[in-house]
Specification:
Keywords: Differentiation, DNA-binding, Homeobox, Nucleus, Transcription, Transcription regulation. This protein is an alpha+beta fold. The protein has 17 helices and 29 strands. Strands 1, 2, 3, 4, 5, 6, 7, 8, 9, 10 and 11 form an 11-stranded mixed sheet that branches.
């Protein structure tokens, strides 16, 4: 009887579990069905809009044909094809000026608002702008949505539409809070609010934005924003600049900014059946590109950059919050999503503050040392900073102010995503351990008195600990742990592990027109929610190729070569048919200082940034893709005398120990030996052998570099024990004495790991001692045969 009851209980439990799974699956399918229905509706509307656009183009084409035919038949002296075309375009782009409106009359502002609404809707759902879909942006229930950019219109414009699982009022609340998602927004002030009779709201806004580099002036906007409901239940937020042509009150002056114009833009938020919203976003602005140096104008003339920085960013932010609200995203570590977003915003804001160095924040520029490549700015008034990170830093006992060293350069043939990914994964290649230790010690009660370089380098490779990432993984927040190492008894403050809070974005190679960025700031072990942050980092922004002119070198200092109004960069004697893409790299590093060490820290910061610039230039040269598209760039044959000598030692030692020939053809000349070793089909690598130190690679042939997915620049940053898996390390350890006594040993098939973390299988490996001419030990050589990525 008891067994029957137990069986019955088990069956009932199993039955309820199955029913629960069925309910969850049914609910999931209903959600997916609603998404597909809404997306299908969106695609049908987009198809209707495209049909209207085609009809409009056909009509315009017929009209132009008629005008051209009329001109050719009348043959008047003052009318030509060019004049008719230009006059027609002039009429379209420069409509009849409006009558000057009373700036203080609410009815005038309402008239401006209604005109803005009509023009915005014609862009969002009509054919007022010729939209071209961005490559890589495919519609679907789980995609970001439909993203398009403008073609042949005044200014730059971008449009996006997508589906989110939030109600329209919540979506509107998120989008109106522009500083929370637009990383380039410095401040947004609502100076006046006027309710309308139809239940809407008119707001007068003043917005300041950051400049993306140190080489251009920041922009500000004076706009009218209109929020209202349409008859179909849709919610609209539209906005445009108030200028002399539109009428309305005059905006506040700002000496450190260039006034940009926002053409009718905004958000159309429509409720969906069953919940959620369909969002249409239009951004249309004129950034006055003619006021910046010619080489930088693509930053201000690119609709793709506007789409990534503003339009897509808004849609992604709404989707992120929607998924966090629904519980679809779970973060580890006990941190709330809002707290992690705040960390990301503070890192970006602090980095932007450092790049721009606004005087009203307390920044002042120090005199140069005769070379204008690095700019040094000082701020001793942390209370004037809008960000809380500087206010909290001011209470530290070591705080006397902030020194910022910054520079910008032009990169040629260097994809932004590849460069930033390399800087993230190979920090010891460009960073200085002593400087990192000084920055971390400034957060403690007993900081180091003065920073200095440490020639010993990093004691071990930094460890990257993921913390959070956005829905589409275009941005990740992480903690970097740097192992502590006291170089001397007086350096005991550096003996503890150091931590950096790091934000990495734009490392996806498929992100069209996106900039890549790596920003980091030292944090202490507590990692409190209000921890002080002093961000430093790198930003790489692609320049759309507007012309085919190559530039002088792969990396150039822009600060000394730019000239406003005309191309100040000298041309190259390079082949114009070569692979040619430019991007702008901006570097900024911030350090705290005690008052009596200000000049010393400023000198150190200048020298350190110059050192980082030199390292980045070498990295850029190494990773620049070849015309064939290799993601690590061309790997040229090393030509130094040391390389020729090492090649002879490797082949001679292999012959002595194994009795066989490493190379198929006997070559007497050193350059022939090196060339054949370089092109050997198997991966051949050399690593150092030192007591009480990890073995690091010192040489690799082309196959070895391909297997490790690295370059000569980063090769010495890779340790042998990080490449071999646990089984491989055990086998090598057991065979090490044999290698040292007999001179070589064969290792069985196994798995190793590339520098990018990809597993690599090999059929066999052989290790042998490389002897110098006097038969003393020089290094260990390894040859991995028939290797391939798993």
């Amino acid at each position: 009887m008891g067994i029957c009851k137990l069986q019955l209980t088990f069956h009932m439990y199993f039955f309820h579990r199955c029913r629960e799974k069925q309910r969850k699956e049914a609910s999931r399918l209903q959600t997916v069905n609603r998404k597909l229905t809404a997306m299908n509706k969106l695609l049908m509307e987009e198809n209707d809009r495209l049909q209207k656009q085609v009809s409009q183009l056909v009509y315009d084409n017929g009209y132009m044909r008629t005008q051209l035919h009329t001109v050719s038949t009348t043959a008047t002296t003052d009318a030509s094809c060019e004049s008719v075309v230009l006059s027609d375009q002039h009429q379209q782009q420069n409509p009849t000026p409006r009558l000057q409106r009373d700036a203080n009359n609410p009815a005038s502002l309402l008239a401006i608002a209604e005109e803005t609404l009509a023009e915005f809707l014609s862009k969002a759902t009509g054919t007022a702008v010729n939209w071209v879909q961005m490559i890589g942006m495919k519609p679907g229930p789980d995609s970001i949505g439909i993203v398009a950019v403008s073609r042949n219109c005044s200014g730059v414009a971008a449009r996006a539409c997508g589906l989110v699982s939030l109600e329209p009022t919540k979506v509107a609340e998120i989008l109106k809070d522009r500083p929370s998602w637009f990383r380039n927004c410095r401040c947004l002030d609502v100076l006046s609010t006027i309710p309308t009779e139809n239940g809407g709201m008119i707001e007068l806004l003043y917005m300041q934005t950051y400049a993306p580099t140190t080489l251009a002036v920041a922009r500000d906007f004076w706009t009218l924003r209109y929020t209202t409901n349409l008859q179909d239940g849709s919610l609209v937020i539209c906005e445009r600049s108030l200028t002399s042509s539109t009428g309305g009150p005059t905006g506040p002056p700002a000496s450190c900014f260039v006034r940009a114009e926002m053409l009718p833009s905004g958000y159309l938020i429509r409720p969906c059946d069953g919940g959620g919203s369909i969002i249409h976003i239009v951004d249309h602005i004129d950034l006055d590109a003619w006021s910046v140096p010619e080489v930088l104008r693509p930053l201000y003339e690119s609709s793709k950059i506007l789409a990534q920085k503003m339009t897509v960013a808004a849609l992604r932010h709404v989707r992120q919050i929607a998924q966090e609200t629904s519980g679809e995203i779970q973060y580890s570590g006990g941190r709330q999503p809002a707290v992690l977003r705040t960390f990301s915003q503070r890192l970006c804001r602090g980095f932007n503050d450092a790049i721009n160095g606004f005087m009203d924040d307390g920044w002042s520029v120090m005199g140069s040392d005769g070379v204008e490549d690095v700019t040094i700015a000082i701020n001793s008034s942390p209370s004037k900073f809008p960000g809380s990170q500087y206010n909290t830093l001011s209470v530290l006992p070591s705080f006397g102010g902030v020194v910022c060293a910054k520079a910008s350069m032009l990169l040629q043939n260097v994809p932004p995503a590849v460069l930033v990914r390399f800087l993230r994964e190979h920090r010891p290649e460009w960073a200085d351990y002593g400087i990192d230790a000084y920055s971390a010690a400034c957060l403690k009660a007993n900081p180091c008195a003065f920073p200095c370089a440490r020639p010993s380098g990093f004691p071990s490779s930094p460890v990257i600990l993921p913390l959070a990432h956005t829905v589409e993984h275009e941005e990740s927040l992480e903690v970097v742990r740097l192992e502590g190492n006291a170089f001397s008894p007086e350096d005991i403050a550096m003996s503890q592990d150091m931590y950096l809070l790091q934000l990495c974005s734009g490392v996806d190679d498929n992100a069209t027109g996106a900039c890549a960025q790596l920003v980091f700031a030292p944090i202490d072990e507590s990692f409190a929610d209000d921890a002080p942050l002093l961000p430093s980092g790198f930003r790489v922004i692609p320049l759309d190729p507007k012309s085919d002119d190559p530039y002088a070198t792969r990396t150039l200092d822009l600060a000394s070569t730019l000239e406003v109004g005309r191309g100040g960069v000298r041309r190259a004697d390079e082949d114009s048919s070569s692979y040619n893409h430019q991007s702008v790299l901006t570097i900024a590093f911030q350090f705290t200082f005690e008052s009596h060490f200000r000049d010393n820290v400023a000198t150190m910061a200048r020298q350190y940034v110059r050192s980082v610039v030199g390292s980045v230039q070498r990295v850029a040269m190494a990773i620049a893709p070849s015309p064939l598209g290799s993601h690590l760039g061309p790997k040229s044959l090393p030509a130094s005398p040391e390389a020729h000598t090492l090649a002879q030692w490797i082949c001679r030692s292999y012959r002595i120990h194994t009795g066989g020939e490493l190379l198929q053809v006997d070559a007497q000349r050193g350059d022939a030996v090196l060339k054949q070793l370089w092109h050997h089909s198997d991966a051949i690598l050399c690593c150092s052998v030192k007591l009480n130190a990890s073995a690091v690679f010192t040489f690799a042939n082309q196959a070895g570099l391909d297997m490790l997915e690295t370059t000569f620049v980063a090769l010495q940053d890779i340790m042998l024990d990080k490449v071999l898996d646990e089984a491989g390390r055990r086998i090598l350890l057991s065979e090490f004495s044999k290698i040292m006594q007999q001179g070589f040993a064969y290792l069985p098939a196994g798995i190793c790991v590339s520098s990018m973390g990809r597993p690599v299988s090999y059929e066999q490996a052989i290790a042998w001692k490389v002897l110098e001419d006097n038969d003393s030990n020089h290094c260990l050589a390894f040859m991995f045969t028939n290797w391939s990525f798993v």
